[in-house]
Specification:
It is globular, with a radius of gyration of 20 Å. Helix 4 links the parallel strand 10 and strand 11. It is of the alpha/beta class. The protein has 2 domains: about 150 residues, Medium-chain alcohol dehydrogenases, catalytic domain (Quinone Oxidoreductase, Chain A, domain 1), CATH 3.90.180; about 130 residues, Rossmann fold (3-Layer(aba) Sandwich), CATH 3.40.50.720. Keywords: NADP, Oxidoreductase, Plasmid.
């Protein structure tokens, strides 16, 4: 029998329930997938906590990879035995499971060079890095960026991609051990925010100018220091809220901070167009298959250990990418 992690109420990690599930046959446009690995992402905690609203009860998880075991009518581009990966939020919600039915539309066929475990560790993070590096800002060699959570799964991919573009990367971390990991993946400079003033240090590293772009996945605790780290007319990209949502603010602050720009993008809007999604997928998979970007899986959990996985995630004990190995 299939297994699934569900929530019946929102709250802390203890609301996660590991249960039996029955998976039927796929309907029109659907396939049945046997998961090999499921991605563990900080975004999963937003659904669990209620920051992102979903009807309850609900399964959670938006990223997994596995093997197609049955195909519904009308599905012509996929076949039984194909290895696939997916990500997406509400259209794909329910990845925390051993087996599931899912629409064939968001599924991405995996090339031989990429395993299901690597795919589950990087599809959401990698495609996020892809659009952030290729769609958000017209980067040119020599630009400097500030990357919060530089030792996280997405941060390590962004750092490596940034170096391919000739960028200088300043990464923030919480420990010296994480700083070492971040530097090994491309960060030119690291700032330990537990005892360093981020904005002050950024100014020192950039001769007072500031950075072109800040990628901020932390939110409430770093919002002001991120604005203070930007050069004139720089861009703050809010990509997550690990410390909580950013409080309401007067947009006039952007003028006071050097006519800064602010955006809160979502992956779904950058992979909604099939052609654009395919282009980003091809570039990401090409870099990973060629070894230009490496994906390090630093921790594997059993699906029944989802509660502990979320505790570790929110306690910032996880470096790089982690997965549920099925």
């Amino acid at each position: 029998m299939a297994k699934v992690v569900r929530i019946y109420e929102t709250g802390g990690p203890d609301v996660l329930r590991f249960e039996n599930a029955t998976v039927g046959e796929p309907g029109p446009g659907e396939v049945r997938v046997r998961h090999v690995a499921v991605g563990l992402n900080f975004a999963d905690t937003y659904f669990r906590s209620g920051l992102y609203k979903v009807p309850l009860p609900s399964s959670i998880g938006n990223e997994a990879a596995g093997v197609i075991e049955a195909v519904g009518s009308g599905v012509t581009h996929l076949a039984v035995g194909d290895r696939v990966t997916y990500t997406g939020f509400t259209p794909t919600l329910g990845a925390y499971s051993t087996d599931r039915l899912i629409s064939a539309d968001p599924l991405i066929k995996l090339p031989e060079a990429i395993s299901c475990e690597v795919a589950a560790a990087m599809t959401m993070r990698g495609l996020s890095a892809a659009y952030l590096m290729r769609r958000i800002y017209p980067f040119k060699a020599g630009d400097t960026i500030l990357l919060h959570a530089a030792a996280g799964g997405a941060g390590l991919i962004i750092s490596q991609w940034a170096k391919l573009l000739g960028l200088t990367v300043i990464g923030t971390v919480s420990t010296d051990a994480k700083a070492e990991v971040a530097r090994a993946h491309g960060c030119d400079h690291t700032i330990n925010y537990s005892h360093e003033d981020v904005a002050k240090r950024v100014r020192e590293l950039t001769d007072g100018v500031g950075v072109s772009v800040v990628f901020d996945s932390v939110g409430k605790d770093t919002f002001m220091s991120s604005l203070d780290s930007l050069k004139r007319r720089g861009l703050l990209v809010c990509v997550g809220f690990a410390s909580g949502a950013v409080p309401a603010f007067d947009p006039a602050i952007l003028a006071r901070k050097g006519s800064a720009y602010l955006t809160r993008p979502g992956l779904a809007d950058y992979i909604a167009d099939p052609a654009e999604k395919a282009e980003l997928v091809d570039e990401l998979f090409g870099h990973v298959a060629a070894g230009r970007i490496r994906i390090d899986i630093n921790r594997r959990y059993a699906l029944e250990d989802a509660v502990q996985a979320h505790r570790d995630l929110e306690a910032r004990k996880i470096v790089g990418s982690s997965i549920f190995a099925i």
